[in-house]
Amino acid sequence: MFTPLFSLAQLHAASNAGVRLHPVDSMLAIIREDGKATVYINESKLVARVRVARPIKAGESVTKSDIVDVDGLELNVPIPEDSGVLFIFSIGWRKGMFYDFGPISGPDRQPRTYDISTTLGRAYCHVLFQERFRIADAEWDALFSTKWFPFAGLRNESIDALINHVRSGWNPDEKLDEFVAEVQGRATQMLESWRSRSSFAPHIEILARAVERFQNGDFVSCTGLLFPRIEGILRTHHTSLGTAAGPSPTNLTDAAVASKLDNDKCLLLPHRFAAYLRDIYFGNFNPVAVNIDVSRHSVAHGVASASEFNQKSALLGILVVHQLFYFLDSGRRVQVESDVAAQGAKVE
């Protein structure tokens, strides 16, 4: 049951008197089995464990555009496994609430068995990037129909622009030149990060040549190099797992996203990216079409239209590779103290 702390009349009177009510930025309530609770108001220090897109030094600011995913959220107050918990937190003007009264309620009450830090991290990620998790099915259809995805290789501002374009009924290709210029400026850094990943090692020479061609505006060569090689990366990862399943497109896709599927608040959007790989990258083609889109199959069979070996296909190839980079290996992690949504949080 919700009970207001102040009545409307009290709030109005306080406002007229010039009294400023102190905002509750965070509240942590730890409720014990005997019904007693300890409540902390604005005393919780939030430290998020995040995966980042670039090397970051201690004391340097981290912004939303640096964050690839959130792995956990640590508080400066321990939360016992046999206690109930209610946690309200703020990210800028956004509010999030998490509660779990299971350990103190019901006849079969049991201590908490999951990692609460990981769960709080997922809640934090959902609030921080809520626009990413609110993409409607019709908007996903519009994105896929134009071969776009909220790729981790794009800045947060670019992803927002991509989503807003679709929500406004506009063609996201209108942002293509901006996205190409952005990724051309970051491609060398992306390539250097790929070099450290075992699944990319057998393919790094081809990837390096593709990046070099992309940065020099040779989109035909870049596209031709990347689209077969993406499957090569998927096959290398699939083989490394030692699975008995054959390397079909479905099995390659499932293996690529498997480590993230249990996290419905993963910023990499594993379920949607799996659909992207199956429907767009591994998409079928019409052999009698006037223009045949670039896909793994159309390129491998040599029937993709020459006009489709363009800057968009090259860009999408780079972004798919970089998305796989985050799925197949652990990546960089840092701890940051909120508030990321403001001017940037500091790395500890």
Detailed description of the structure:
The protein has helices at 8-16, 116-128, 130-133, 137-145, 156-167, 176-194, 204-215, 219-240, 249-257, 270-281, 296-300, 311-328; strands spanning 27-31, 37-41, 47-52, 61-62, 67-74, 84-91, 94-100, 332-337, 345-347. α9 packs antiparallel against α10 (270-281). It starts with 7 loop residues before the first helix and ends with a strand. It contains twelve helices and nine strands. The strands form two sheets. It has a five-stranded antiparallel β-sheet. It is α+β, with helices and mostly antiparallel strands and 348 residues long. It has two domains: 24-130 and 335-347, no CATH class; 131-329, no CATH class.
Task: Write a short abstract of this structure.
By secondary structure, the chain is of the alpha+beta class. The chain is built from twelve helices and nine strands.
Distance between the termini: 39 Å
Uncertain stretches of 5 or more adjacent residues: 1-8, 341-348
Would you tell me the overall average pLDDT? 88
Q: Tally the helices.
A: 12
| Shape summary | elongated
Count of distinct structural domains: 2
Radius of gyration: 24 Å
Largest sheet entry: 5 strands, antiparallel
Order of helices and strands: HEEEEEEEHHHHHHHHHHHEE
- Proportion of helical residues: 40-55%
Proportion of residues in extended strands: 5-15%
Q: What class do helices, strands and sheet pairing give?
A: alpha+beta
Number of strands: 9
Strand order within the widest beta sheet: 4-9-8-3-5
